[in-house]
Amino acid sequence: MTEYAKYPFVRMLIPFALGVWCFVCLPAFRLSPLTTIVIALALFAICLITSFSLKSYRYNWLFGSVMALYLVLTGYALARVHEAEIHKDYYRNFETDASYYVARVYDHPTEREKNIRTVLELEYQFGDNMPSRPVTGKVMAYFPKTDSAFALHYGDLVAISAPIREVTPPLNPGEFDYRAYLGRKGITGQVYLKDNGWIDLQVNNANPLYAFAYRFRDILLTSLQRSGLNDNEFGVAAAILLGYDDNLADEVRKNYVAAGSMHILCVSGMHVGIIYLLASFLLGFLNRKKWQQTLKQVLLLALIWFYALIAGLTPSILRASLMISFVIIGETIRRQGFIINTIAASAFILLCANPYNLFEIGFQLSYAAVVGIVVLHRPLYNCLYFKNKLLDKMWEITVVALAAQAATIPFTLFYFNQFSTYFALSNLLMTPISFVVVISGMILLLVSWIPYINVWVGYLVWGAVYVMNWVVAKIESMPLSIIKGLYINEFEFAMLLAALLLLLMMVAMQKRRLLFPLLSAMLLMMVSTTYRLYHSDQQKGLMVYSLRSHTAVDFVRGGEHLLLADSALMADEGTIDYSLKGAWAQRHLSMHPQTIGFDEDFDNGSLRKKSNLVSFDGKLMALWDDDYRVSDSLSYRLPVDYLLVRGKQKPDVQAVVNGYDAQLLLIDGSVPRYLAEKWLTQAEAVDLPCYDLGNGAFEADLK
Fold first, then answer.
1. CA-based nearest residue to 156, from 223, 210, 229, 104
2. Exposure check for the chain: N or C terminus, fewer CB within 10 A?
3. In a 3-state reduction of DSSP, which class is residue 619?
4. Which H or E element spans position 157?
């Protein structure tokens, strides 16, 4: 048996995932359904011919190659099937003026700061002059905070009248692509509802299993609160035990991210393993006869998957549940497989169920971490030997953290542009505490209905969670606890992934000849990074960001930049992290730039700001404001390169033309849409070039 023959699901997973990637990431080369079917039939015919006609072993590679192509096409076709827009009843396919929709609450509603958010699955559309028509599609809905909205549950039918809008694409460089994120979940629109924009139809059309799971989870959450958990401790306990993170405070979430311990808040293999051990112990009386053992395995499988359902069916819990299910089935049929093949089998099944799982960050991180631990744990552990059992256990925990971190570095750099410096220390301290939290938490859920006992166990859970929160807060406050701005582009991400894969293969199969391609991939990544760093040192320009409620202008020279922004934005850390820091990371700019307010003057030689005029590298920008209008008594129009209109300024392009000879009028994203439309209409009437930042950021290269 060859080395590869032991891992059939690995050999199936790679081409299948490649087919999914091709469909999603190469839209310009998409095949028509007819072409896909013809190619599939041709490959199937070739498979039959080669399997029956070629008897020589040396031609097996041909059959394997054709099967790999067939799997690529299968992944491609399944990804097409899961695309919402291809369904004939997709709601955007009808050129109608539908005024109303009947929709089903598809997800458990969650309370946010200003509204209640949930996913609606559309079922019918109709209008005043059109009959009802069945439709498909999912939209993200935002309800006002009213008693009727709080009373919504999964499966409730509602009628909505607000127009369904497309999700806005990222408007600034490096900004998180929320539209793509929702699209991969099948959500292709969003709707903002007012008090009179929807009606509860008082009908529930829920899947009974999901409905029961949601109700049962709510009961467990209530029991946690009644046992003495509240505030931050309740939010963390609910996330760890039940995968419910809606009550997790932003500050607590930030601390766990900075400490490199965010994975602890995710329901994963440790939780499933503990449930398996506890349930197996409690069902130990079923070990006497063969039929009892089979019944025990069936009960264990049912319990594990019911817990996965309660925990939200996240990628990490699905992976763990599938893997332990394979272990249980293997015990039942007296078969034992290879762990890497088991991991690949679980990933293959999840991708068959939903190919878009491939692009879920949680899916990628979960599988990368577990593969890293399986492959790298033993070689790293053998590097040091400790006679002392305590030191040996500490080293083992540290090695697990190192292996998981090494395997997930490409993903954290590419998606989050950051690195947690003290991840090893954090995991060394947090792993035993989190184990106590999970064990005591599971016991608490079991005894939550028993008076007094539930309170005492609740005190134990509260204390352990309190210690966890205190530890991550201390680690987050340490110097350089998290390094931000570590940007890598798509090519560098691919090279880093290739190097990681080659490293894992070299360690797992002990093939030293893979060292050369590994070093080659790293070299290509370093060349690309060096090239980008060289160009970032030469960059010079300005960028006006597209922000809904704020104004921000960046003046860039090399790796330094000055940010002209309103005072409200400077205090809004969330908007800066979401909309600006991605662009700064791409350009290797400081994450903490010097800021200039709109009401202050400034002069550092390269940039000068006086009143409403800003001069930078030979370019002049004017800020349109009623307080800084050019006097009508001037005998000339002030020549400026850019004139920026911001806020709720009354549209008056004629006044702009009378005072300024502007090369380009910029309508800031902070200008309300109804006023922006008026500015654009008036500018077009006088042939004044105009750019609306509501369509995206404006960038000028001044090199």
1. 104
2. N
3. strand
4. strand 156-160
- 555 by Cβ neighbours in 10 Å (0-12 / 13-18 / 19+) ranks as buried
What is the per-residue pLDDT for 658?
81
In whole angstroms, what is the distance from residue 224 CA to residue 464 CA? 14
Q: Which of 659, 653, 637, 655 is nearest to 690 (CA)?
A: 653
DSSP-H helix ranges across 231-385: 231-242, 250-258, 269-282, 290-310, 315-332, 339-353, 361-381
Report the DSSP beta bridge partners of residue 448: none
Placement of tokens 């954290």 in the chain: 412
CA-based torsion, 514, 515, 516, 517: positive or negative: positive
Average pLDDT of the chain, as a whole number: 82
Residue 75 has pLDDT above 80, yes or no: yes
Measured between alpha carbons, how far is residue 380 from residues 373, 393, 497, 527, 602 in Å?
10, 14, 20, 29, 55
Rounded distance, CA 552 to CA 575, Å? 11
Confidence of residue 558 (pLDDT cuts 50, 70, 90): confident
In whole angstroms, give the CA distance from residue 143 to residue 164: 13
Cα 423 to Cα 401: distance, rounded to the nearest angstrom: 7
Dist CA 322 CA 199 (whole Å): 40
Q: 375: which 2 tokens?
A: 């492959």
- Per-residue HEC secondary structure of 670-697 comes to CCCHHHHHHHHHHHHHCCCCEEEHHHCC
- Domain positions in the chain are 4-81, 91-206, 360-417, 490-538, 540-701
Q: For residue 267, give the H/E element and its range.
A: none
Instruction: Place 167 in a pLDDT band, splitting at 50, 70 and 90.
Output: confident
As a whole number of angstroms, the distance between CA 31 and CA 74 comes to: 13
274 and 439 Cβ atoms separated by less than 8 Å? yes
Contacts of 680 (CB under 8 A, 6+ apart): 667, 690, 692
Please state, in angstroms and rounded to a whole number, the distance separating the CA atoms of residues 367 and 407: 9
DSSP single-letter state for residue 128: T
In degrees, to the nearest 5, what angle opens at C-alpha 245 toward C-alphas 168 and 314? Answer: 80
Q: What's the 3-state SS for 470-537? A: HHHHHHHCCCCCEEECCCCCHHHHHHHHHHHHHHHHHHHHCCHHHHHHHHHHHHHHHHHHHHHHHHHH
CA atoms lying within 13 Å on the CB side of residue 98: 24
Cα 241 from Cα 438, distance rounded (Å): 6
Look at residue 249 and give its three-state secondary structure: coil
What fold characterizes domain 540-701?
Answer: Metallo-beta-lactamase; Chain A (3.60.15)
Strands 690-692 and 660-667 come out as parallel
Q: Are 97 and 127 in contact (CB under 8 A)?
A: yes
Who contacts 415 (Cβ-Cβ below 8 Å, separation ≥6)? 361
3-state DSSP assignment of residue 618: coil
**Residue 456 contacts residue 443 (beta carbons within 8 Å):** no
Q: Which residues contact 8 (CB under 8 A, 6 or more apart)?
A: 341
> Tell me: domain 91-206, CATH 1.10.3470, correct?
no
Residues in the chain, total: 703
Residue range 349-365: mean pLDDT, rounded: 86
- What count of other Cβ atoms lies within 10 Å of the Cβ of residue 371? 23
Predicted local confidence at residue 95, as pLDDT = 60
